[in-house]
Amino acid sequence: MSVHIDHLNQAALDIVVSEDRGILPKQQPLLTHLYFGNSARQHPDCLSIQTELELLGSNLFAQYWFTDQQVSQNRYQNIRYAHTPQMLFGFIELTCSSKTCLQSLTQKAYSEIYQCLENTTCKHLLRTWNFFPEITAKDSKHSQLNRYESFCHGRLQAMQSCNIKTKVYPAATVIGNHENTFQIYFLASDTPGTAVENPRQTSAYHYPVEEQHTQPLFSRGLIKTWGQRTHFYVSGTASIVGHETLHINDVCAQLNEAINNVETLVAHANDKYHTQLNAQDDLLYMKVYIRRRENVDQIKQVLAARLSSTTPRALLLGDMCRENLLVEIEAFYQA
Ligand code: 3EB
Question: What are the structural domains, with CATH classification, of the chain?
Answer without folding.
Answer: 7-334 (3.30.1330.40)
